[in-house]
Amino acid sequence: MTDPAAPPVIEVTITAPVETVWRALREPELIRRWHGWDFAELDEEVESIYVIGIAADDTARVLTIQSGDKVTLHPAGDDTLVRLSRAPIGADPEWDTYYDEITEGWYTFLQQLRFALERHDLAERRTLVLEGALEQPGILVDALGLHGVAELPQGSPYKAETPAGRLTGEVWAVAPGQLLLTAQELGDGLAVLAQQSHTSYRPEGGVLILLTTYGLDDTAFAALETRWTSWWDRHRVTPE
Fold it and tell me: Which distant-in-sequence residues (6+ apart) come within 8 Å of 8 by Cβ?
């Protein structure tokens, strides 16, 4: 469990002006272009995290979220350092059970923000998400044949044949339990491959595959969805 005496701090440097990053964190229509994935309640989720109960200092560019988490922006030359400081455990007891998972989620979200700004100027996207447990317990990157890619440093080019198709691009980011890859096959999109922790509400652990695509027409997206869901359906635990 995370040490409550030292709440996590996540930092991501984005190649974009502070004003641009601030808008991407403040305008719901822009937030939905990078946060999480497409689903029926995405707009409600954006409102609940980034709008309702938010304390925003537009001058200092500081967001204090109702949970107590704080996002601050810091100019770094032509770039912007985004710092997410988590509230200590106990600040919002209702969510303490999910504390580590929320921390991991914030890392993913900030990397999605960085990717959407740097590579696509917050263009519209389309996503595919697969979440659950593997039938054969193990590491997601191993199941996809990406163990070697996961050992590469950030920024390294890679080319891999996975059971769901080829992926080609660069290692975007690596964190404990997370591998993020750019992929030309996703329309210069982003693949997030995450190992989910064993918890009281997820005793078997789990995995998350989040594919963010750009510019794929309906036929290409449907083909991508078929490849990945076909592999997933063969290897996931089927809910009873």
Answer: 2, 86, 103
